[in-house]
Amino acid sequence: MLSPRLHALGTFHRQAGAVTVWSGKLHPDQWIIAAQIIQDQGGRLLALWGEDQLDETTEYRVYAAFLSESGIVLTYLSIEPHLLEFPTLTDIFPAAQRMERALYDLLGLRAIGNNDQRAWLRHGSWAEHQFPLRKDFCTNDLSEDEESHYPFHTQKSPEGHEIPVGPVHAGIIEPGHFLFQVLGEEILRMEERFGYAHKGIERLFQGQEVVAGGRLAGRVSGDNTVAYAWAFAQAVEQIAQVVVPERAQWLRALCLERERIANHLGDLGAIGNDAGLAFALTQFQSLKEDWLRDHLRYFGHRYLMDRVRPGGVAFDLEPEAVTTLRQSGQLLQEHVDRLQVILSEHGGLRDRVVNTGIISAERAAHQGLMGVVGRASNQPWDLRVQFPSCPYDQLNVRLAQSTDGDVAARMSIRFMEIAESLRLQKEILDHLPEGHIEIGLDIESVSGTGIGWVEGWRGEVVMWLRLNHGHISRCHPHDPSWTLWPALEEAVLQDIVADFPLINKSFNLSYSGHDL
Questions:
Q1: The CATH number of the domain where 97 resides is what?
Q2: For position 146, what pLDDT does the model report?
């Protein structure tokens, strides 16, 4: 049940569906009180976004989704058109800072009390007085400003110097700008600037039919396509009030665990490579390639795009495929076990990863970290464990956790999660229910809001959706990278510049999912 202290603030309703959600409207003073209650009880901020409701309720809205002991607490504020401001949450949840800056860039709602009011996403791509998520925004009259100099926070010192990195990089990666302030080789400060991969995804969702919206959701962050597609499907199914066939639920979980394994394999190889151990890259990339080829062969897509869709899944497994996947999973575990021993005994690698890029448990809790990064710093959050939906409520997921908070710990979490996901794959394949793989959805006349919440390989993916007669009125996809990127700025402090690629890869955060 919802905390009595939160219930006392207003009327909260529990929304039906696979995700436990308590939703309610708050006044500005209650907004801060609710956030403090949740923080006091060990909860954290999941996502923050806004909506233009002028044509329906003559107001703007600011939403915040919090994690509480009872599930998601979804709150919103009504903002009068002449006011266009709301109280900041940054004093309680530091992760709110960039979310609030992005909210102003996109919707023109200012967070009062946020001490950083620099533009985050705009980059001069539209005029300062234009706000792309307002319904009166006209793309035919899109005017661009010449981008002004971004005022990085610098600390001038005659002994130190600055090293700018990016936004264009030497490797085939997405763009991000990192400014290092160093004393010799030691990093004293590192500040990030993103938004270069902003594609206007939230605007692209508007007016789309559900099928097209599902395809777009799966492309918010291409390495996390299953998690986003499943979260979007959950939101649609919540609004439509339908129950997906059990076989489809189990097949979705199979895809999610295979996506987790593929990314962890790639990351372990890349971390080893950034530490000077090319052997790790070649070995893990070979294993990942075999894994992806099985995706194409048995699921229809190397990266599992469009395999999960509202109402079910777009594929099924024949008995011989089940047998082959079971065998390949066992073989992969044997290979990974051998590689884990080799890496753990490699002195050169251990010198680079142990006590490097540390985030303490206390700092991780303060910043609200989740996923691999959070669990490596003793934050025991995993939706598959605390809030299991079908089929995880029948699989007894084992939580991977470490207390060290360094690169080595984040590697260890990945090894543990590969082993657990392979165990889960075996359980799913051994007990895969019979039946249909999808249910027909008649949503042409359906209106309402829903929310999806899935434990992706990087952390929790949140998808909030409003449908108006079967078409998308508003959709906000939220990547865990919004919370995890600021933590990277802290993780590199007192380490050397040469260790930044290694620490960065141990996080492996999304630019695309963050910039939208």
A1: 3.30.460.80
A2: 62
